[in-house]
Amino acid sequence: MKLSLALLASAFAATSAFSPAATQVSISRSSTTSLNASRNRDKVVSRSKWAASRGYGSATAAVADVDADVAAANTGLMTNAEGLEYVRLANSAGDTSDIYLYGGVVTSYVVGGQEYIAVRPDAKMDGSKPISGGLSHCWPQFGPGAIQQHGFARNVNWTVKSMTDTTVELEMAPSDYTKAMWDKEFLCTFTVALEDDKLSTKMLVENKGEESFDFQAALHSYFTVSALDNLSIAGSFAGKEFLNKMVGEGEMQTEEREEITISEEYDRVYMGVNDPVLKDSGIGKSLTVMNTAGYEDTVLWNPYGNEGMGYNNFVCVESVKFNPVTLEGGKSWTGDMALKAGDL
């Protein structure tokens, strides 16, 4: 599907910039983060190694078991050093994921000790502005438009609807703050599940009113990179038209490569591409972005050369529904995206 240059260029202007004009919503729940987890782990690991050295089992297996036990013991609602609440998930393998209530943003996905989700070094983690990193929501607007940049989902506090050691369900409903800019009867539910072999996310948008409304949706996803020189991004890019926003005021071009590499500043909109796979030769790992419902397009962004943003250690591969969805009263829309880590 082709979109006019004028439409794309105007709609995607400054898509990668996070507006500093964010409203902080007060946190209504309190919790504390365990300060003794690492000490407990060290003690148990030391004892396990001592037992293994005397023939009472494998030290490696013992340490792995300890890691899983410690991770499982440190799940649930926690608070960071700046006072923001987040939920930590952990599975039986010791993999973990962190999801902040502020913005409903996933900021971490660790598999086998490897972190796959990036948060920029200049990110504010105190609620003073949207978190620059993670799987950040752009809803009900992507980029600039009638309301604030990227909408409001990323700078309000979501509430915990349900939670287990491996899943969390967050909810965002209208408030005085959202109604002031977008007075629609919506309900958004964001579910994150830490499965044995992947991290699954589901964004459910419901129209609770009688009148229809239009919206866009995206996960402004930041992923870790050992170095850009080690990165390639595979997918159905070859032969697709894309908007290259770094040329003049934006220029439609055709992608000739099977895999994308980044050696300059990137801000590209690929309509109809939703199957990217990140390959990092520096760590010998891959990350498959599985967009199975709702998200139809991909945006690639990197502020090449910007040391303050830590450009060389992340890339944005964004899952996007650019063409607006018209949601009738009583109906719902779902965006499903999962991350699957693998070896090269």
| Global morphology | globular
What is Rg? 21 Å
The oligomeric state is single chain
The biggest sheet amounts to: 9 strands, antiparallel
Number of helices: 4
From the N-terminal CA to the C-terminal CA, the straight-line distance is 32 Å
Work out the strand percent.
35-45%
Number of DSSP-assigned strands: 21
| SSE order, one letter for each helix or strand | HHHEEEEEEEEHEEEEEEEEEEEEE
Q: In which order are the strands of the major sheet placed? A: 7-8-9-10-21-18-17-12-15
Q: Which structural category do the helix and sheet elements fall into?
A: mainly beta
What helical percentage do the residues reach? 10-25%
Mean pLDDT: 86
Give the uncertain stretches in residue-range form: 1-7, 9-45, 59-64
Structure description:
The chain has 344 residues and is mostly beta strands. 12% of the residues lie in helices and 39% in strands. It is built from four helices and 21 strands. The strands form three sheets. A nine-stranded antiparallel sheet has the order 7-8-9-10-21-18-17-12-15, with no helix packed on it. Helix 2 (37-53) runs antiparallel to helix 3. The chain is globular, with a radius of gyration of 21 Å. The chain starts with a helix and ends with a strand.
Layout of helices and strands:
Blueprint lengths: L4 H7 L25 H17 L5 H15 L2 E4 L5 E6 L5 E5 L4 E7 L2 E2 L19 E4 L20 E5 L3 E6 L3 H4 L6 E9 L4 E9 L5 E12 L6 E4 L6 E4 L6 E4 L4 E2 L5 E5 L6 E4 L4 E9 L3 E6 L11 E14 L4 E12 L1
Antiparallel strand pairs: 1-2, 2-3, 3-4, 4-5, 6-11, 7-8, 8-9, 9-10, 10-21, 11-20, 12-15, 12-17, 13-14, 13-16, 16-19, 17-18, 18-21, 19-20
